[in-house]
Amino acid sequence: MGLIKTIKKILNRTPPHSKNKSSDQKNPLKNRIQENFLMVKETLGNSSDLVSREIRIGKTKKMKAGILYIDGLTDANAVNNFIMETLMINMGEIEVGEAFFSHPNQLQLLKDAVLTVGEIQEVRDFETLYTSMLSGDTAILLDGYSQGFTISLKGGKDRGVAEPTTQTVIRGPRDGFTENIRTNTALIRRKINNPNLWLETKKIGTQTKTNVSIMYIKGIVNDKIVEEVHRRLDRIEIDGILESGYIEELIQDETFSPFPTIFNTERPDVIAAGLLEGRVAILADGTPFVLLVPTLFVSFFQTAEDYYQRGDIATLIRMIRFLSLFIALLAPSLYIAITTFHQEMIPTTLLVSLAAQREGVPFPAFIEAIIMEVTFEILREAGIRMPKAVGQSVSIVGALVIGTAAVEAGIISAAMVIVVSITAISNFVFPAFNMAISIRILRFGMMFLAASFGFYGITLGLIAMVLHLCSLRSFGVPYMSPFAPFNMTDQKDAIFRVPWWGMFSRPRLISQKNIRREQNPPTAKPEPDQRYNQE
């Protein structure tokens, strides 16, 4: 009875004048269902996954309606339960008489009083119709109207929420992003239950029309950063976006830099923590990797687990990561420089041992290092591309067999095998895979400088690298912050990680408003429980 009263109230309304206006679209819909069906089928090439159904609705079956959707992208059961059943069965049971069919705006009546679904959008042209259908929406067209509705009933098979495979933790949440952008936004909203968490979506790609969303916390984020993100996304003109790496390469600050200036992760807790610091998250449909801007150099050496462990433990682990950075970058080049130019720096006993090992080696240290590094890179790639069941075994066994055989054959010295091995292991310590690749690239340059100029070449290379790092910016924020420019307040979460009661402020160069993270003033330690101080 409530549905009948609602329909009768709408019947008594005066139809809005805007409905009488002609569409200003270039390719508007026709007012005949068959013509619209024919146009859609021709455009889609009579694709077999296009489902088109013409039905008659109402008690007298006088009105014709058309339903269009793509099989596999739309939930067919939802279409049957919420659209087909409503229009063909429930509408026939409603006794509204001839007034319904004589009403001048029956399409609006269906939207307001009949269809029991949530998201309904009006469509007036074929371009919007195609975009909605190919995104998983269902289209409803009414005979005699040059407009229709698209209903969000997305379905299809999606990969469930599982543990991230590239950024694992010992202690922390086990949920990771999926390829469905709506699932990803929901995972973030579960972490941040705040109405100020805003979400803006746009379509990028002339062919794929991929949904790309921007998330940020209003009141914490710097508005200039949000405007810059919008500006860079709006200037993208490309056929398609198949992964967030497309966007990362198109909006990054520096094109010809080995260092990544945009952070990516598949962990919702990392994105939530970044949003709480005033950063902006960029999500692309079809990929589990979400971008986070602006980013800093130290961000690539921090993990989510740093904030779930005690501060002293997290600080120790971070120091190990930065030590691994220098080992992965400089270990082969230091060995080459010392053995080639600066033998006087080696203790006599060790120098005699190295000379004995290299007695039968026909190549200089630089060529040795190049051979071993290239061999290990090939083994690494082979282990990644091979099936998981045998990939790890092949990489480990291959490294052992090749290293041992090369030493026994007299091609490589044993010390070089040790240096290359510790270098490769240190490279695996990096939490961010893209930063590890950057260090691998720079390592070859350092080896060349060491072979050419010794320690002088390594020093020049480090100076050039530091100057380049200090010149980088990520969406207007200095890349080497809080070291350059130096900010004492932000040192609490750089190399060191102070306890949570000392993390009282957000990064100043990222969030320039609402700096205070904790409402209570910072203290040297938590207040003791007064119950245990009573005599």
Q: Could you say which structural class the secondary elements and strand pairing correspond to?
A: alpha+beta
Rounded to the nearest angstrom, the radius of gyration is 31 Å
Number of helices: 17
Which outline best applies? elongated
The quaternary structure here is single chain
Order of helices and strands: HHEEHHHEHEEHEEHHEHEEHHHHHHHEE
Range of helix content: 40-55%
Number of strands: 12
Number of domains: 3
How would a textbook summarize the main sheet? 5 strands, antiparallel
Describe, in plain words, how this protein is organized in 3D.
With about 525 residues, the chain is an alpha+beta fold. The protein has three domains: about 150 residues, no CATH class; about 120 residues, no CATH class; about 170 residues, no CATH class. Helices cover about 45% and strands about 10% of the residues. The strands form three sheets. Strands 1-2-4-5-3 form a five-stranded antiparallel β-sheet, with helices on both faces. It has a five-stranded antiparallel β-sheet with strand order 6-7-9-10-8, sandwiched between helices. A two-stranded antiparallel ribbon has the order 11-12. Strand 11 and strand 12 form a beta hairpin. The relative contact order is 0.08. About 0% of the residues have low confidence.
Structure characteristics:
535 residues; 3 domains; five-stranded antiparallel beta sheet; alpha+beta; 17 helices
Task: Give the structure's gist in a few sentences.
The chain is an alpha+beta fold and 535 residues long. The protein has helices spanning 2-11, 33-43, 76-93, 99-102, 106-114, 126-133, 181-191, 223-234, 244-251, 268-276, 311-340, 348-357, 365-385, 388-408, 414-427, 433-453, 455-471, and strands at 50-57, 63-70, 120-123, 138-142, 148-151, 197-204, 210-217, 263-265, 280-284, 290-293, 473-474, 477-478.
